[in-house]
Amino acid sequence: MLKRPIIIDTDPGVDDTIAIMLAKSHPELDIKAITPVTGNVPYSSTSQNALRLAKYLNIDCKVAIGADKPLFIESKTAGDIHGEGGLGGYILPSSDKDFEGYAWDVIKEEAIKANGELEIITLGPLTNIAITFLRYPEIKPLIKRIVCMGGSTYAGNMNAYAEFNIWVDPDACDIVFNSGVPITMCGLDGTEYAYLTIDELKGYIGKNTKIKDLFDHIFNFFIERRTASTDDDKLQVIYDAITMAYFINPNIGKTKKYRVDVETKGSLCAGRTIVDLFNKTKKEPNVDVLLWSDRDLFKDMLNKMLDFYK
Fold first, then answer.
1. Cα–Cα distance between 127 and 72 in angstroms, integer?
2. Using an 8 Å Cβ cutoff, are 175 and 133 in contact?
């Protein structure tokens, strides 16, 4: 089997963890490195979660030192969404793995080794990728594509228009989206079609797998949050896992290429991804935008993932 060399750039979080579990369950992916970044919780937690998840899931890859703050603005996190330590209070076993170099150096090295075949999936702010392109602009042609969980075509979850990952470091997003590297943006509205109901969440719990303790803890955490939510629909969207599912199997979604610019300043909509749906700017399209995701296919991929870990 010809494996796909990939790097997972992430701020582990509960949804990142499910995404990484999903990646490990697909043998056609050759995970070269995990590069943590500050985001869902402070870097002290995301970096340790990355090291410990690699050990917990038996992923034989580098874990590199990433950015502990955004490029130009102060750090902002979402601990209230991801719980203590980023994993809803779950404490992973300690790991004997250690960091191997810096994220931007590892990305450069792996891009050269892969000779144009390296793919990067980003599950958090784009700080590490932006630093890579600022330091080593010559490797841009060696990145096959980046699939990014972030952004939104319509509404945001941090202000009226901005999604969290972009809002945390809009300057980094601006650099990456204008890098010339093929980009797919899996935003809030494109992923939300693949929601899970509370009853569906319950249906995944209790399977006899090697990841049972952590997986069940996270899904119970989702259930508790959704049950306590004031939203009428009580639906759970595991954004990072849906993005990873699309990365693995593009049949899970539908995309269309648009011009996407990023609002890096402003008090009302900093971090907004401005998707030019009607070509008003007349600029060259630069991002494939996920418009829709297949709920049934995503649920099937979660079931197959759990079968893998039996």
1. 10
2. yes
Helix (H, G, I), strand (E, B) or coil at 190: helix
- Average pLDDT over every residue of 261-271: 93
Which token pair is 310?
Answer: 């039996």
Of the candidates 23, 9, 35, 87, which has an alpha carbon nearest to the alpha carbon of residue 242?
A: 23
Say if pTM beats, i.e. exceeds, 0.85: yes
What does the pLDDT average to over 115-131? 98
Token digits for 299?
Answer: 């649920």
How far are the Cα atoms of 143, 151, 172, 257 from residue 286, in angstroms, in the given order? 15, 14, 16, 7
Question: C-alpha 272: how far from its chain's center?
Answer: 17
The helix/strand/coil state of 191 is helix
pLDDT digits (tens, 9 = 90+) for 5-33: 999 999 999 999 999 999 999 999 999 99
Which residue from 62, 45, 46 is spatially nearest to 54, judged by alpha carbons? 62
45-85 pLDDT tens trace: 999 999 999 999 999 999 999 999 999 999 999 878 888 89
How is 66-90 classified by DSSP, letter by letter?
A: --SS-SSS-----HHHH-GGGTTT-
Task: Count how many Cα atoms sit within 13 Å of the Cα of residue 232 in the half-sphere of its side chain.
Answer: 0
- Joined tokens for residue 203: 């249906």
DSSP letters spanning 204-225: HTT---TTHHHHHHHHHHHHHH
Residues across the chain:
310
Say what the pLDDT of residue 79 is: 77
Beta-carbon contacts of residue 138 (< 8 Å; ≥ 6 apart): none
